[in-house]
Design a protein that fits this description.
This is Thyroglobulin type-1 domain-containing protein. It holds the Pfam family Thyroglobulin_1. Its main location: secreted. Keywords: Disulfide bond, Repeat, Secreted. The structure is a single chain. The protein folds into three domains: 73 residues, no CATH class; 110 residues, no CATH class; 59 residues, Invariant Chain, Chain I (Irregular). It is built from four helices and 18 strands. It has a three-stranded antiparallel β-sheet with strand order 1-2-5, with no helix packed on it. A three-stranded antiparallel β-sheet has the order 10-11-12, covered by helices on one side. With 299 residues, the chain is an alpha+beta fold.
């Protein structure tokens, strides 16, 4: 006979007092005012309000105790002791800032790393793009210019490539935002730099009509959407995928490294070495390393 149930969750930071308050219009149920209802036909489960004790780093914990003794955000209960949860950005809140210096910015709602991480002071400091788990990805800007920096494009490309897509052709600005004109998976559109969503009152078009878009600029984009580096890398990936579909996985050519803006990456493979390169692909001095150490190079 329940006609409506509205649940409200109340959280008190000091002791994690969790209360579900149910407002019930029912002639059949007479319940105390502080009762949380979980219903599943034909059963109804009632859970009364209770205090959950939250403890800090190194303290004893017990998730199954009554009432539970749980760890603060950024910690996890391991062998009944609160330890740092390195999978959550919030673990950095338990570090000594005087010892570790400037700590990263976290998203308090889900414990992930904020997309934009800034270091230094507002005038000379810089902001960089990071993934949800704290990996440095493409994109940076001076802190004083970073108010509209979202890193949305860098995060999108990073997540797509992590998921196994090797043919992503989204183009990011230096600061990790979207370029205004985007093409991917055979379609092109004018994009909001902050989100990548299509600009209002415009339409997406097939790739061969990309120069008809209102955001197309001849002097900036030229006659080809893909740039020198990502054009070669994209062709390489298409060849690899074609061989893979026919059962051949061992391809002899080396990967071409490109930035998310289509320029050449920080290193390239030359004669069994990983060598540092400029954005135009030219070699940067004599800096080089073994190929098996390439992923550790930042040039």
């Amino acid at each position: 006979n329940c006609h409506a149930i509205v649940a409200q969750l109340s959280i008190d930071r000091e002791n994690f007092l969790l209360c579900g308050i149910a407002f019930i219009q029912s002639s059949a149920l007479q319940l105390p005012p502080m009762t949380l209802i979980f219903w599943s036909i034909p059963l109804i489960f009632l859970v009364t309000c209770g205090a959950v004790n939250a403890v800090g780093l190194g303290d004893d914990c017990h998730n199954n105790a009554v009432p539970p003794v749980i760890c603060d955000p950024g910690l996890l209960c391991e062998d009944f002791v609160c330890v740092l949860d390195k999978k959550s950005c919030l673990f950095t809140h338990h570090l000594d800032q005087e010892l570790f210096g400037q700590l990263p910015t976290c998203n308090p709602d889900d414990g992930t790393f904020a997309a934009k991480q800034c270091k230094g002071d507002f005038i000379t400091g810089r902001c960089f793009c990071y993934s949800e788990v704290g990996e440095r990805i493409f994109g940076w800007d001076w802190w004083r210019n970073a108010e509209e920096m979202t890193c949305a494009c860098s995060r999108k490309r990073h997540s797509l490539e992590k998921a196994g897509r090797h043919d992503v052709t989204l183009h990011c600005q230096q600061n990790g935002n979207y370029e205004e004109l985007q093409c991917d998976e055979g379609a092109c559109w004018c994009a909001d730099p902050a989100t990548g969503f299509i600009i209002e009152d415009t339409i997406a078009v097939p790739h061969h009509l990309w120069t008809l878009l209102p955001c197309y600029n001849t002097s900036f984009y030229g006659t080809q959407y893909l740039r020198q580096c990502d054009s070669a890398a994209h062709a390489q990936n298409l060849i690899r995928d074609a061989f893979s579909k026919r059962g051949t996985s061992q391809i002899s050519f080396t990967n071409i490294q490109c930035h998310y803006d289509g320029t050449y990456g920080t290193f390239a493979f030359v004669e069994n070495q990983a060598v540092c390169t400029w954005r135009d692909g030219s070699r940067l001095g004599g800096f080089a390393s073994q190929t098996n150490q390439a992923n550790q190079m930042d040039c």
